[in-house]
């Protein structure tokens, strides 16, 4: 999940995949020292085509520069970790049904199986974790199997498993009083998925 942050040199599709990879890395766990260091020195141009992303991307980089890694790791734990109920859920089923491990997760697993994908046994979280969803989108963009990695499959998966709940997750993070760095992450994710939605709409 190590995203390249020199996206100005990448073509649009590679840049999209890298953004999903970056979001997956930031949502799955607190950032590594290497990833955080690269965020801090990243150019503040949009990491994917579209001026709409330049402002939220710049705010994300600025937030990394302003806040220590230790503080960001503590923030991640405060928002998403802890024993029992977290402050903010990262699982799609929670936003779609109000409960974990419900019908939305079963539907997701069926769609993943149709794509030939399955959860790594080493991953403790269920497949509707936001980081896993981002990793699937990254694969559908950058994967080598053109039968799976194509715009049609991307749009289908995005429409079914990203668009219905990612905005709610982003809003939950952005409105949480403990969110600082992750407020910027959520704002960028919200802007990016909005651009993605518009792009897929234009395919009709």
What does this protein structure show overall?
The chain has 204 residues and is an all-alpha fold. The chain has a single domain, classed as TorD-like (Orthogonal Bundle). It is built from ten helices and no strands. The radius of gyration is 16 Å and the shape is globular. The relative contact order is 0.15.
Short description:
With 204 residues, the protein is mainly alpha-helical. It has a single domain (7-201), classed as Orthogonal Bundle (TorD-like). It has ten helices and no strands.
Sketch the major β-sheet.
Answer: none
Distance between the termini: 31 Å
Instruction: Give the CATH superfamily.
Output: TorD-like
- Beta-strand content bin: under 5%
Total domains: 1
Coarse shape: globular
**Helix count from the secondary structure assignment:** 10
Q: Which architecture name does CATH use?
A: Orthogonal Bundle
Structural class: mainly alpha
Mean pLDDT over all positions: 89
The CATH class label is Mainly Alpha
Number of strands: 0
**Radius of gyration based on Cα positions:** 16 Å
**Which regions are unreliable across 5 or more consecutive residues at pLDDT < 50?**
1-10
In CATH terms, what is the fold-level topology?
Answer: TorD-like
Task: Write down the secondary-structure element order.
Answer: HHHHHHHHHH
How much helix, percentage-wise, in residues? 55-70%
Secondary-structure map with pairings?
Elements: H1 12-28, H2 33-40, H3 54-66, H4 69-80, H5 92-97, H6 103-114, H7 130-142, H8 151-161, H9 166-174, H10 181-201
Helix pairs in contact: 1-7, 2-3, 3-10, 7-8, 9-10
